[in-house]
Amino acid sequence: MPQVTRVVLAEDEVLLREGLVGLLERFGFEVLAAVGSAPELLEATRLHRPDLVVTDIRMPPGRRDDGLRAAVALRSEQPELAVVVLSQHVQAGYAAALLDSGDGRRVGYLLKDRVAEVVEFVEHLRIVAGGGTVVDPDVVRRLLHRPHDPLAALSPREREVLALIAEGRSNAAIAAALHVTEAAVGKHVGNILTKLGLLPSDDTNRRVLAVLTYLRGGPAADPGGSTWTGPAAGRR
């Protein structure tokens, strides 16, 4: 029998919180606690030590990025903790901040609208709980059109492959989406990593570093040497 994923949920809107609890339980997750503020999230996660935290970004008491800050703090305390943050608006900086936490794995950044796409939403939660990384496709699409692209060295196909990596897709899934062979995808991935200067290493996940480069809009860097001071204040 597959292991049940244990979850702590943080959402300040009561109706949405209760709806998420029902959805998660319907799909076999065990909800250990459902709370409405960042301090409660910290307390519940430290008490229950769940497999997965699902949290809104904008939470009491500050109603700015309190939920995200709590999630990053918990990741520093519990490196194996999987975290998915939910946002009302596209903010690439939030996704980058979360990916900067820990080793960049077991994290997800999704827009709240994705909750309505129930099966896909649940699949994304399972990917993150299983050790993967998922970035909302709308964030990826927005980054594709930014000016002064730091990824100009990549070919159009390589940029397309990197966008799909950022969405948390495996090489096999990318091959299916692009109607090419998995070997072709592997070659594109290798070219991407080489062009971004991400040399083979046993200590870092180069796919995650490539996504970080994509989100930051700057040179690739080891996440262990990065510092996050928080995204710009404002609505998520």
Give a description of the structure.
Residues 147-217 form the HTH luxR-type domain. It comes from Micromonospora avicenniae. The modification 4-aspartylphosphate is found at residue 56. Residues 6-127 form the Response regulatory domain. Keywords: DNA-binding, Phosphoprotein, Transcription, Transcription regulation. The chain is an alpha/beta fold. The protein folds into 2 domains: 6-136, Response regulator (Rossmann fold, 3-Layer(aba) Sandwich), CATH 3.40.50.2300; 141-216, Arc Repressor Mutant, subunit A. 46% of the residues lie in helices and 13% in strands. It contains 10 helices and 6 strands, in the order βαβαβαβαβαβααααα. A 6-stranded parallel β-sheet has the order 2-1-3-4-5-6, with helices on both faces. Strand 5, helix 5 and strand 6 (133-135) form a beta-alpha-beta unit. Helix 7 packs across helix 9. The longest helix has 14 residues, at 182-195. The radius of gyration is 17 Å and the shape is globular. The model is unreliable at 218-236 (pLDDT under 50).
